Amino acid sequence: WQAKKRYNVERTRRSCQDPPQLSNRDPFGLLRLIEALKAGREERMPQYVASLIDQPGPGVHTVQAKLLSDKMTVTRDPQNVEAIFTTQAQDFDIGPARLECFRPLLGLGLTTVTGEAWKHSRALLRPQFSREQISDLDLEERHIQDLMKVLDVRDNGWTEKVDLQPLFSNLTHDTVTELLYGQSIGSQKHARRPSAPYESLSKQSDEASEFGHHLESGKSWLYERMVLGRLGWLFSSTKFYNHCKEVHKYVDNFVYARIQQGEADKTEITSKGKFVLLNELAKHTHNSVQLRNETLHVLSASWDTTSALLGWLFYFLARNPRVFDKLRNIILTDFISGIDFRQLNNCRYLQHCINETFRVAAIIPVIERVCTRDTTLPQGGGPNGRSSIFLPKNSRVLISTYGMQHRADIWGSDAADFRPERWEEEKNGGGWDFVPFAGGPRKCIGQQFALTEASYTVVRLLQRFDGIENMEPPGPIKFHHALTNSSGTGVQVRLHEAK
Ligand code: HEM
Questions:
Q1: Mean pLDDT computed over 352-367
Q2: Ligand 1 within 6 A of 436 CB?
Q3: Domain annotation for the chain: domains and CATH numbers
């Protein structure tokens, strides 16, 4: 009662009004929680979150719902997003629940800590992602070669039906482990060829792919724990702890080997000229748990994001032959004399295709923040949604990036369609309606690495193949969500090699 009274007083003092409140069928919002978990398992989680905002009716872009002991604000309003990431960034952070939910797998590190500990982690890692470090196209090319070998072509010029999603996962796992530990896990070379999505990691037998399986399964647990918020740490099992143990064991091999090399051969390691994140971090600390955690946080953040982007891009290209042909023609002209970092960034149509993939598929479909103190959001309150909203300390806010990127009033009546040309046109949003890498202090540090890897892969594949055919039977789009969003039906295509 005291809390309610204080809430009302503060709301009035700050001239705020409440946004539409979603009614619950039970007092604790338990059924809504079950609904949310079910939507995730049925591979329609991004649409489910957006549909919550649709419930009160047209023109509403922010709502509140009760979820267990928390009141959750869900928004797809760019003005609120701007406030969260920039103008009021000090009022919003990841909140303590994330650490408790992620701790068994990831421990303390960049993506789980806040305050001074986060600043320290970020200062340690951020410089390692400078342009020079991440524009190593030789690294990309080595692993693209492994991908190319897998894509055998028959006499008629076509590959067999192939699911590109696990192949892209292998590609990105191999590059990022080499970047982090100086040694690739070689999943592309060792993978058995699956035809169904998600088989590759779970069916491979060697140690490296076992590691992939444990990390992937561990991350799925993290997602479901996060849905439960503050109570997420209760959602556990020996299976989950076993995944965590196996992941740590694998990463520790690299870490202990590096520590044993010690100071003595530091010069030798750095003079090889190859950038390895673990070596760079080992210059600052020899604490094995810190080295494990910091590298594991980067590994976890990059594990399935770039591969999901690549998967979705080819998913859409296979369904849009016009875009495929146009993109290929541009690539053949722009990259006639080689590929460099600057050219990749400057190829506008390629970047538009990537942006459109981010927009339609929303690789990270929701971003959660928690209020670090009593604060407000500029929009969504009152009958016309124009008043500011009061949010007490510890309130949870969910940005529905998927919902925002599908708003017809911002993106046009064809917002659901994949049409890269829209990026050449004027639109309404004003910048904060499109945040694939988040924004503000906790913005993704791997953005440039991800975009370079994705762009390079698209260029190399379209140089080799001049045709793509969708091999998936018609059906609804499915979002396989484990913090990151990839196609739930894989990317089942066949490719035609250019003569
Ligand atoms: C398409 C690819 C990617 C997308 C869409 C993406 C998106 C994001 C988003 C939305 C966040 C903010 C999450 C939050 O605060 O809740 C984030 C954070 C982060 N990303 Fe990425 N990411 C991608 C690739 C990568 C790669 C390749 C790396 C590393 C090699 C990476 C490393 C990180 C790290 C370490 C953070 C945490 C930053 C912090 O908390 O200060 N990401 N990413």
A1: 96
A2: yes
A3: 18-372+391-499 (1.10.630.10)
Mutate to test the pocket of ligand 1, among 312, 443, 444, 448 (most ligand atoms within 8 A of CB): 444
Nearest CA to ligand 1 atom 17: 444
In single-letter form, the type of residue at position 170 comes to N
Q: Which residue among 113, 299, 305 is best mutated to probe the pocket of ligand 1, counting the most ligand atoms within 8 A of its Cβ? A: 305
> Is the minimum distance from the CB of 364 to ligand 1 under 6 angstroms?
yes
CB of 177 within 6 A of ligand 1: the answer is no
pLDDT at residue 247 is higher than 90: yes
CA dist., res. 34 & res. 26, Å (int): 12
Tell me the C-alpha distance between 241 and 224, whole Å: 15
Band the pLDDT of 36: cuts 50, 70, 90.
Answer: confident
Q: Per-residue pLDDT tens for 302-348?
A: 989 999 999 999 999 999 999 999 999 999 999 998 999 999 999 99
273 in the Ramachandran plot: left (φ > 0), alpha (ψ -120 to 50) or beta? left
Please state whether 119 falls in left (phi above 0), alpha (psi between -120 and 50) or beta.
alpha
CA nearest neighbour of 74 among 124, 32, 117: 32
Protein residue with least CA distance to atom 6, ligand 1: 437
Q: How far apart are CA 93 and CA 442, in angstroms?
A: 8
> Sorting pLDDT into bands at 50, 70 and 90, what band is 60?
very high
Query: Using a 6 Å cutoff on CB, does residue 435 contact ligand 1?
Result: no
